[in-house]
């Protein structure tokens, strides 16, 4: 089983997992003693759908949003990347925190909506579906747990609009879990694979340009109506991006290929690989020759 993806890595999380039927005692509202405390020291991982909502809210491209509002991080060494919210310059507070609360509340990220619950997505190595469970985050500064208000996690998710957020990010979580549970069988992703993952998941506007390229159209046979539909809708394009990544990273074909173009592409890849292997062999031979020359000079 893969390690849980906990969106609050620096918080003390209750180790026992609970189901969505579990009831919590919690309320966060203006006037509570800890108002804005959690927004003053953020460590927020973002999902691809979070990026869509916030870049649209701000009226900027995904490329601009990634540059100005996020920092990348490795989910695992030499593996695929995640992104985190960039706090205020020289501090740890959220850039959208205002005295009255969140300035983008209706488009706030998934992790903010879940608090004080942590979503634990896990997947067994022999299974093809992810399983959701939950843990409760309890921090000393939070007074929300002292409020007498009982609500099940299922109802809390509905209240916070999380059903839509989770459903539209499910494909991304499955990609992450698949990579983690596959381990050495998949191997270390190439630089090109890591770049494709980052672009397709987070930089949706750049991915749209990628899908519109002639080279993409020659290799992938998408019906004209389907292509037009996904190109004009960010959410549809994001779901297509997850399909694309499952195909190019894990061989789960769901997008038809042009056989001739695919064969030509494969030949180019093999030729490039052969050249690289030859260059590596020459380099090893040269290094061995230099080592032998050094030993002879020593004698």
Q: Portion of residues in helices?
A: 40-55%
What's the number of helices?
11
- Placed side by side, the strands forming the largest sheet appear as 2-4-3
Order of helices and strands: EEHHEEEEHEEEHHHHHHHH
Question: Low-confidence stretches at least 5 residues in length (pLDDT < 50)?
Answer: 1-9
Structure description:
The protein is mainly alpha-helical. The chain has a domain at 23-181. Helices cover 48% and strands 11% of the residues. Strand 3 (70-74) and strand 4 (81-85) form a beta hairpin. Helix 1 (48-58) packs across helix 2 (62-69), helix 5 runs parallel beside helix 10 (234-250) and helix 6 (191-202) packs antiparallel against helix 10.
Quick gist of this model?
This protein has 299 residues and is mainly alpha-helical. The chain is built from eleven helices and nine strands.
Task: Based on the model shown, name its key terms.
globular, two-stranded antiparallel ribbon, mainly alpha, three-stranded antiparallel sheet, disordered N terminus, single chain, 299 residues, 9 strands
């Amino acid at each position: 089983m893969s390690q849980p993806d906990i969106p609050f890595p620096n918080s003390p999380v209750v180790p026992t997992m609970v189901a969505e039927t579990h009831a919590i005692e919690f309320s966060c509202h203006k006037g509570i003693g800890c108002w804005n405390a959690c927004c003053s020291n953020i460590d927020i991982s973002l999902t691809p759908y979070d990026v869509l909502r916030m870049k649209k809210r701000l009226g900027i491209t995904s490329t601009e949003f990634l540059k100005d509002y996020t920092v990348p991080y490795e989910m695992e060494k030499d593996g695929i990347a995640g992104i985190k919210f960039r706090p205020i310059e020289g501090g740890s507070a959220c850039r959208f925190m205002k005295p009255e609360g969140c300035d983008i509340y209706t488009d706030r990220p998934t992790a903010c909506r879940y608090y004080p619950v942590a979503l634990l997505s896990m997947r067994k190595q022999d299974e093809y579906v992810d399983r959701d469970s939950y843990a409760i985050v309890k921090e000393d500064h939070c007074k929300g747990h002292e409020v007498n208000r009982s609500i099940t996690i299922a109802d809390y998710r509905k209240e916070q609009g999380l059903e839509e957020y989770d459903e539209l990010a499910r494909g991304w979580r499955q990609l992450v879990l698949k990579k983690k549970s596959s381990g050495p069988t998949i191997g270390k992703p190439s630089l090109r694979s890591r770049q494709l993952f980052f672009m397709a998941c987070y930089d949706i506007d750049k991915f749209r340009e990628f899908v519109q390229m002639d080279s993409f159209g020659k290799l992938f046979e998408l019906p004209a109506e389907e292509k037009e539909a996904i190109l004009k809708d960010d959410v549809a394009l994001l779901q297509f991006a997850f399909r694309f990544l499952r195909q190019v990273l894990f061989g789960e074909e769901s997008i038809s290929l042009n056989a001739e173009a695919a064969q030509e592409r494969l030949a180019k890849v093999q030729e490039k690989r052969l050249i690289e292997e030859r260059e590596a062999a020459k380099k090893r031979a040269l290094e061995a020759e230099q080592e032998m020359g050094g030993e002879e000079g020593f004698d």
